[in-house]
Design brief:
alpha/beta; single chain; Rossmann fold
Length: about 250
């Protein structure tokens, strides 16, 4: 049995009286990529944000069930949400660099966590940019504005910023949807390399992308987990007709 990094048990999420996720059960294996697919409004992003407790800032939201990371339920009352978010990095659909230099963007999380050692910060910034496959392109421009980078470079910068605080899990919400094919290819190559060190959960609307980069695939529909299996099985021998219809473009 492969090592389970995240175990979701009987998990439901409510926005007020609206149930957005219905009794989700799923295991995410360590150092693997889980791709989440499904039509708009099916609960993909809500599920993703539940893994690092980002949804709980929404007024009137509540959960049932458990999200267990390394054997501990992250929703237990004695668990610090800030610590959870430090250990579980997030990359959003639209790159969101801060209005700072490239260097300061990556160093930001280290500094707010109280790290002051300049040599350590410099080393960590360089390593994070290398891990995000960006260092060679920008190493001579570290003190230029992050806004001078291309869209694809900005997204990789945001990945580097997430990596700098040494998370174990990386959540990605359609990280390539706003990028051109070349930049998308670089992000996909990067995800393939990053899973050597991190457990990755990625939401994507792009069926081909899910097939290319994920090891396991989960198909969501109307807040329910319809199908979850190895990606090649989901795409070639799905157990549910509704999964096949979605993948082949008959609806959604």
């Amino acid at each position: 049995m492969e090592d389970i990094k995240i175990k979701v048990e009987d998990f439901s999420f409510y926005y007020g009286s609206v149930q957005a996720l219905k009794n989700i059960n799923i295991d995410v294996r360590r150092n693997r990529v889980l791709g989440i697919i499904g039509p708009s409004g099916c609960g993909k992003s809500t599920f993703l944000r539940s893994i690092n407790r980002m949804n709980e800032v929404i007024a009137g939201s509540r959960i049932e069930g458990r999200v267990i990371v390394d054997g501990k339920n992250i929703y237990d009352s004695n668990v610090d949400a800030v610590e959870i978010r430090k250990n579980i990095g997030m990359v959003f659909q639209k790159s969101n660099p801060f209005p700072k230099s490239i260097f300061d963007n990556v160093a930001y999380g280290l500094k707010i966590n109280g790290i002051r050692d300049k040599d350590y910060i410099s080393d960590k910034v360089e390593r994070s940019l290398k891990d995000a496959a960006l260092w060679k392109e920008i190493k001579d421009r570290l003190h230029k504005s992050a806004f001078e980078l291309s869209g694809g470079q900005q997204q990789r910068l945001c990945i580097a910023r997430a990596l700098a605080v040494e998370p174990e899990i990386l959540l990605m919400d359609e990280p390539a949807s706003a990028l051109d094919p070349t930049a998308t290819h670089k992000i996909e190559e990067l995800i393939e390399a990053l899973k050597q060190k991190y457990t990755i959960v990625i939401v994507t609307h792009n069926m081909q992308q899910a097939a290319r980069i994920s090891d396991f695939c989960a198909f969501f529909m109307l807040g329910e987990l319809i199908e979850y299996d190895l990606t090649n099985i989901v795409f070639t021998k799905p157990s549910k007709k509704i999964t096949e219809d979605y993948i082949t473009g008959r609806f959604g």
